[in-house]
Amino acid sequence: MKVTRRDLFVWGAGAAAGLVFTPVPWKLLDDVSIWTQNWPWIPQPPRGPVEVKQSFCSLCPQGCALKVKTAGGWPVGIAGTSTNPLTRGALCPLAFGAHQLNWHPQRVRTVRHNGVPSSWSDARAAFAKACSEGPVVIIDGQPGRAASTVLASFAEKHNGSYRVEMSPETRALMPFESWTGVSAFSLGYDLENAYTIVSFGAPLLDGWGVPGRFTRLWAERAAGRSDPQLRLIQIEDSLSHTASRAWKWVNIRPGSESAMAAGLARALIEEKLVSARGPMPVITISAAASQSGISESALGELARTIVARPPVLAIASNHNPEIAALNVVLGAVGAHGGVVRRSKRTGKYIPAEAQIPNARAVLIDSSVPWDFAPDSNAEIFRFVAWDGGLQKCDWLLPAAGFLEELTDIPNAPTSAVETYAIAPQLSKPQFEIQSAAQFLVSVDPTLPTVEKVIHSRCEELFHQRAGTVYGQEVTGVAKFDSAQKLEAELEKASTWVGDPPPPGELRCELREWPPTMIAESSQNWASTWNAPVLPPLATKLYRESSLREAPGRRTV
Ligand code: SF4
Fold first, then answer.
1. Second label for 171, Cα 20 to 30 Å away, from 1, 10, 299, 522?
2. Contacting residues for 249 by C-beta, under 8 A, at least 6 apart
3. What is the pLDDT of residue 505?
4. 175-213, pLDDT tens digit by residue?
């Protein structure tokens, strides 16, 4: 029998179609999945006891409490700690797969100088030479840590400059720093006692602040109620996740947040809805309404709704003096349910983006988000655990990945109370890493080490005899016999929580209404930390669920 090429095609097509109805392709797919998961380069946890340890996530300044499952000493699973009074078991999707990050292909494993492999001793020699030739700028992304003390001390001793890259949450508090004289890093929001929150595009239900804080409050006091105890009014130009769940969504024109805040302040003062505490905005109500794209009557109605259930707090998504000034008019600064001073610490910092004239070198700590690029021609020494690509730097220096170093965790940017915790090292790095603080101590051994600064902070907390430690048990600091015992308790991943600040601790002086500015929006996936890389699990959660909203996925 003659078999033509056409017969072969027909037979082949029939066989292929028939094959789909047999188990063969599905078995093949299954086997391929198993083989690809067992390639030799995929890390296999060593055999050993399975344990659950406690720690904190230090990937961003929120410092969420973690339960870490380890196998043979390797972290293999992450969950939230429900007993932690601040995060109450919540984590962002990034953390659930964060243990995978240490094996990420973009992990920085060796020192690189202009893209070429180099060594720690060459990097140290180059940095010491730069320090002897001119001023050095040191940039930190999470101030208030023991490592930050080392970075700031080095800058001070070597005629350098210490600067801070701020989260959008801290930037939103910056105007109060000028009007109260208190550092934005000592201010927070008393969300727990607010009854109306007016959010100007702040993603309160989608990655703002500590993940479990506002979402739990909203779930307990607002979700599913037509007249909730906690009213969330979202003023935003798109139907974000937060806007779609809010009690009211006010749809405004993009970039008109400042005009809207000024218009509301004017309506509140003109209609005598508040006892005027701030200067009158220059903008008229009709101009504010037309810029925001809503009617004058709707703006007036919104002003009346806002003050109907006090205490009221306005929250900006980023630096915006007019939204901050609305809080002054509302009497929310230094008030119950408003903007509060959580600590007596005074540190005010130079922002990282301030001009860097004549610097010889810029050292960037690994806590600085990867998308930050200094505006300088100086020699750049950048500590990173992961290379997110597209950033120019002279020296790329491998830093600790997830849970690979001892660090302390100061309070989260928007917290209303002062907190302190210690995150122990739970994972051994597989290659030589150094933190920026260790590197600086190796250049100048007279600096204090991170461990020493943590001891001093624990002694300070012990001598203040204030606050409570939340661990297996809840214990007042006054009950600890010694600073060593307090430190030992904190090393078990307990959290110290300071006493709430007394009301009226904050005096605010605003003589003139601030000039109008276009608000910067914070559309990052995590508003506080732009991840250079994502673990596979987070990518899956991000792409296939609605747990976190992607920029540009919003629709009206
Ligand atoms: S919000 Fe920040 S600290 Fe909290 S789990 Fe996510 S990355 Fe970690």
1. 299
2. 233, 234, 236, 239, 243
3. 74
4. 999 999 999 999 999 999 999 999 999 999 987 888 889
DSSP state of 192: G
* 172: Cβ contacts below 8 Å, ≥ 6 apart: 202, 315, 316, 317, 318, 319, 320, 323, 324
C-alpha–C-alpha distance, residues 289 and 522, integer Å: 24
List pLDDT tens digits, range 377-409.
899 999 999 988 877 889 999 999 999 999 999
Place of tokens 């005096």: 507
Query: Is residue 9 over pLDDT 80?
Result: no
Q: Which atom of ligand 1 is nearest to the CA of 210?
A: 1
8 Å CB contact between 166 and 368? no
Confirm if 81 and 60 have CB atoms less than 8 A apart: no
| pLDDT tens digits for range 20-40 | 556 666 666 666 555 555 555
Q: How far is the CA of 92 from the centre of ligand 1 (A)?
A: 6
> Which of 421, 479, 383 is closest to 54 using CA atoms?
421
Residue whose CA lies nearest to ligand 1 atom number 8 = 57
Mean local confidence (pLDDT), 308-319: 96
Residue 75 is given by DSSP the state: E
Cβ of 57 less than 6 Å from ligand 1 = yes
What are the two backbone dihedrals, phi and then psi, of residue 292, each rounded to the nearest 5 degrees? -85, -15
Please give the angle made by the CA atoms of 431, 528 and 496, to the nearest 5 degrees. 80
What was the pLDDT predicted at 556? 42
Strands (E), 252-344: 312-316, 339-341
Return the number of other C-beta atoms located less than 10 Å from residue 305's C-beta. 16
Under a CB-based contact definition with an 8 Å cutoff, are residues 216 and 230 in contact?
no
* Pairing mode of beta strands 419-423, 468-470: unpaired
Determine the 3-state secondary structure of 411 from DSSP.
coil
